[in-house]
Design goal:
With about 240 residues, the protein is α/β, with parallel strands linked by helices. The protein has eight helices and ten strands. Bound molecules: adenine (ADE).
């Protein structure tokens, strides 16, 4: 997968792209990320990319011209049109289903907004899909862009050590994950639940299923009212993966 990211703060991505799974995905040739500083396309001595909003009000708005020029230059070199994503609090909610959908694309383009907002003509002319990573406001689209890339990278076939394809359907069943434990079996007088040491796979599966239900009911009851679109009760299907 290729991802092009338009940002005026490319430096923000340096650590993110050079560590952990996202680095491995790139090393394996499964993910290619290209950063483009669209300030380079801004005109005037200060190369400003924002301006005051028409109609008044606080804050500044991302101007269309530097973004249009950057996109035109980029697209001239592409054979096919990438899927255009614009992280924004006004967007459609980003969730695991959308992460899976995007992970199946071959090419994404993410525009990171800043300031109070962006000129709406950018969205309209280029058919950007606006996506929100949650009901809070960040200072810009860079962190959401990292969220999108991170969530997608781990879904690319071959990136994770184990095969995630079996979990493909898992978020159709919206339950939170069960608790996990590793060795030692007792750590500072804190024991692991006995069932996990029993070697009885059926009991373990039942316990995990029950834990998922209890956790979801306590922490995210809203998920229980979401209608599952597939077989809803496969005990070995992990769900919310973090
Ligand atoms: N930009 C600022 N806040 C955002 C959010 N919650 N989601 C996506 N992009 C954003």
């Amino acid at each position: 997968m290729r991802v092009d990211i338009l940002t005026i703060f490319p430096g923000l991505f340096q650590g993110f792209l050079s560590e952990s799974l996202v680095r491995i995905a790139q090393e394996k040739g499964l993910l290619e990320v290209h950063l483009h500083d669209f300030r380079e396309f801004a005109k005037g001595p200060r190369r400003s990319v924002d301006d005051k909003p028409f109609g008044g009000g606080p804050g500044m708005v991302l101007k269309p011209e530097p973004v249009f020029l950057c996109l035109e230059a980029l697209l001239a070199g592409f054979q096919t049109r990438p899927r255009f994503i614009l992280p924004a609090p006004v967007g459609r909610r980003f969730d695991q289903a959308l992460a899976r959908e995007l992970s199946r694309e071959s090419h994404l383009l993410l525009l990171c907004g800043r300031y109070e907002g962006y000129d709406e003509r950018i969205v309209d002319a280029w058919h950007f899909e606006e996506i929100s990573i949650g009901d809070y406001v960040l200072t810009g689209g860079e962190v959401p862009a990292m969220v999108v890339v991170d969530s997608i990278a781990r879904l690319l076939p071959g990136v994770l050590g184990h095969d995630l394809s079996a979990a493909d359907d898992s978020f159709e069943q919206p339950l939170l994950d069960h608790p996990h434990y590793t060795r030692p079996a007792t750590f500072r007088d804190l024991p692991v639940p006995e069932v996990l040491l029993s070697g009885d796979h059926a009991r373990v599966a039942t316990w995990r299923r029950e834990q998922r239900r209890l956790r979801t009911a306590a922490r995210r009851p809203d998920l229980l009212s979401e209608k599952p679109t597939r077989s809803a009760d496969s005990p070995e299907t992990p769900t919310t993966e973090a």
